[in-house]
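Hi W.,

Here's what went into the run:
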Amino acid sequence: MAAIFQGVGAAAPLSSSPSNSFDSNKSVFSPRRSFSVSKRVSFAVVRSDGKVNLNPKGRRDQRLIPNAVATNAGSAAASKQGHELLLFEALQEGLEEEMERDPRVCVMGEDVGHYGGSYKVTKGLAKRFGDLRVLDTPIAENSFTGMGIGAAMTGLRPVIEGMNMGFLLLAFNQISNNCGMLHYTSGGQFTIPVVVRGPGGVGRQLGAEHSQRLESYFQSIPGIQMVACSTPYNAKGLMKAAIRSENPVILFEHVLLYNLKERIPDEDYICNLEEAEMVRPGEHVTILTYSRMRYHVMQAAKTLVNKGYDPEVIDIRSLKPFDLYTIGNSVKKTHRVLIVEECMRTGGIGASLTAAITENFNDYLDAPIMCLSSQDVPTPYAGTLEEVTVVQPAQIVTAVEQLCQ
Amino acid sequence: MALSYLRSSSSRSANLLKPLSSSLPLRRHISTDTTPITVETSVPFTSHQCDAPSRSVETNPKELLTFFRDMALMRRMEIAADSLYKAKLIRGFCHLYDGQEAVAVGMEAAITKKDCIITSYRDHCTFIGRGGTLLEVFAELMGRQGGCSKGKGGSMHFYKKDSNFYGGHGIVGAQVPLGCGLAFAQKYSKDETVTFALYGDGAANQGQLFEALNISALWDLPAILVCENNHYGMGTAEWRAAKSPAYYKRGDYVPGLKVDGMDALAVKQACKFAKEHALKNGPIILEMDTYRYHGHSMSDPGSTYRTRDEITGVRQERDPIERIRKLILSHDLATEKELKDIEKEVRKEVDDTITQAKESPMPDPSELFTNVYAKGLGVESFGADRKELRASLP
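Here's what came out:
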């Protein structure tokens, strides 16, 4: 892995491979680095192209690790470090660190300031940074999204929160026409470094209008990037990367994932916006998923392992553009693909992904790609019906069995 | 416009070589003359929730001559664009601003290039006012590389970042929230500058306008919303689209001012007033009572919803260039011949620029994919085949 955190004086063995080289043949997720460095020491930053930056200028906190590894069960060395928190706290931490680091970052949305955010993602920020940086807007999505984009044209970096992703449909014109296209139609004069974020997805009986998955609506807008977070680790990393990115990024969170707990590293890290995450390497079938469905897939994976299958689970994370490199390597290994998503069947992320894989990797497929998505219905209120609307682990198991015949 | 100053001075020195003719006192070099002249605006301002500024505007010969030249240039540019469109060199949509030039030049006279302007798709002349060159305009209209947006924007997408001109927007009314966002950024950075967000009488009925106005008033943003009321929203007259066509009053709690938009000096006075007001008290609405001679766009003849008599009537009585011409002649600042020479010069400039713009090449096919994303942050990130480095750590 490329940029390595070092104590002063010691030069790092340079890794020549780029930081996101996921060789899916190895089990890449066993963190072998032993970080025994104390926190408040002066340091050298070794960059991925080999240059060593001693005393990097200006920035307050230079300890940026592009691929810090979250602890999972297998790592002994890193288990003492890091701190445990919930996903919404991870988002808040990421936001707070970025606001501290760059005075141009501001947050705007409904109830983000004094109330602390309807999902507590912006809790405490208004007290800390003041009313000009954490802005409570009236309920006017179209205009405050437009205002965020206008502010971004001058160089500010607003983080626009939609209380629920579904409300951003009201701002669709601003997101599609102004956010996505201004960099192009101005011939490169303006960049729009906004982050549009909010919770979406099917919750617990929230009703049709509050259970929308808008990934499919936004995916064809040229000029924007879309990412979906699924764990506290990647939530914080993606939030920070999205804020630092010069492009408009839409960060999809999920209502039901806000209370996930995980131990994340203490150091400053970001997650690459265009990279997929290997959740579980395997041999028999590639399961591509994102957001909440990752957990349904992992649940199904337990059953599948007991039945003797070895699924490879990839959390695609980057919904636009797709990380075809990681996905491609996986397809070349397993030759079978199952896509599990919460999006609607028609015109969803799965549909685009199926097309992308077929176009690029058709020769490597032993079976047609299977795509499990939500039913093409408005989400019903009744609990039993709502359960059937989204993909359940049992269906995933059946699908894998069918695929691997 | 420094260039106009130089050209006028050269014609002036040529005149000095000739024997003095009718006007007996030796006329001063008017293009550098900054002796103040006070002019009354054609009609008084009407205000809503504020005190109207005075009708007497201070100006000087240099400014008047600049107004004349700039408006003549804009007029000639729009007419040339009309012919180019009919010759199929400009395609798509082309919305012409002739008749409304006074708004663009009057506004520029009152503000600096640090103040922001954002407008709708009728942006050719506003772009020139902000310092854009004729070549950039024509090249962009014809889709060439030399255009201000490299040929990728077109008529409705002119931008000039270094002089704070934020475009150029195709969707009616969508630029007003953007404009309030610009004002927010100005307040955030404590710049002491203001934003002028221009829109038309058609856009005045958009909900997002009122949303943005509410937020601007709430947060005290230095946003000035300017309604260029040319009385027709495409083919629909204002009285058929708005229950209350008094657009300057529609801000309700936000003060407003109604201005004769065909009088460049009135526009200048109003904008100066508005800038002072916005920096102290928050948003204000200006309604510019103006008129467009062409139809809504090149595909609209402009005569199905209004009579030709109306158009010629306005042209005779309220034309902005004629007003300035009369002013210059009545104050004896230049002879008719000099003004006609300026117009001829302008015409030649436009024609020469068009020839030059026609030679600008079409964009390279690879430009299709540039500027979709900004490269910037990120650890090294590659394309699908590992060949193209897409982003690297800054």
